[in-house]
Design brief:
26% helix; alpha+beta; 5-stranded mixed β-sheet; Sulfite Oxidase, Chain A, domain 2; 2 domains; elongated
Length: 264
């Protein structure tokens, strides 16, 4: 026993214990009070207002540091898994005839909404690109997967969508871009909102192939979104309707308390 320990009297020892337990008790009361405050706060998009404020702050920080220069690591095709994990069927349970499917696009040019109906043959006619990357799920798992389709930026330039003036949209002209793109499944069962900067990222694709073959139905045939800079919840399967706006569109999982941006 050290010299200092020998000098502690029973009264001093009891006083120290009292102070320690008192501080611990106050800390517990503070934690409980904070929990009650968060639980009792109004709900905003599926989360209490304080938690939603923190999630929105994370979104803003992520957008500040995100750019086209930030590319997700790509892998050789040989490293892609042959059996791609299926996770969730929201928006996929209603039968769909892929032979008659068409993508509906609300262009919203110069404040006037007009509608395009685009077939798979028209989409396949655009320059094809492929990507092999580590697909990450918000649940904690990941897989190296191989996808093929058309860059959304190429699609947007071809059909002049995503800009307010109707000119070809690019991230070099942020003032002319709508802030968000919305994607909805044909049955309306699943929907996401994507910021336009991420939509125009060079690795974001409208995908119609997986492992060199047409998308299977449980992976979103005939067309899905692959956006490697986001968690899987943003990679909407089976696109039915696309639209553009300055208002943040509804997002399936954000309404259930998750971060809206879901960026990596």
């Amino acid at each position: 026993m050290s010299e200092q320990e020998k000098k502690i009297s029973p009264a001093d020892w009891n006083r120290r214990k009292f102070l320690s337990f008192g501080v611990l008790g106050l800390f517990g009361v503070g934690i409980y009070g904070t929990w009650r405050w968060i639980k009792g706060a109004p709900q905003v998009d599926g989360a209490s207002a304080p938690l939603r404020s923190v999630l929105d702050f994370d979104d803003r920080v992520n957008r500040i540091y995100k750019s086209d220069a930030h590319l997700v690591k790509e892998y050789p095709i040989s490293e892609a898994v042959k059996k791609v994990r299926v996770n969730g069927d929201d928006g996929l349970t209603t039968p769909l005839d892929t032979a008659t499917w068409m993508l509906t696009v609300h262009t919203n040019k110069s404040g006037a909404d007009s509608v395009l109906h685009i077939t798979m043959d028209e989409i396949r006619a655009l320059p094809k690109t492929e990507i092999v990357f580590d697909f990450k799920c918000i649940e904690g798992w990941s897989q190296i997967t191989h996808w093929g389709g058309v860059r959304f930026s190429d699609f947007a330039k071809k059909y002049l969508v995503g800009s307010k003036s109707g000119a070809a949209p690019t991230n070099d002209k942020p003032a002319d871009l709508y802030k968000y793109m919305s994607l909805i499944t044909p049955d309306g069962g699943y929907y996401v909102g994507i910021d336009m900067k991420s939509a125009l990222h060079p690795q974001t694709i409208l995908c119609y192939e997986m492992n060199g073959a047409p998308l299977p139905m449980d992976q979103g045939a005939p067309l899905r979104l692959i956006i490697p800079t986001k968690y899987g919840v943003k990679n909407l399967k089976r696109i039915g309707t696309m639209g553009f706006s300055d208002e943040r569109p509804p997002d399936y999982w954000a309404e259930r308390g998750y971060e809206y941006d879901a960026g990596l």
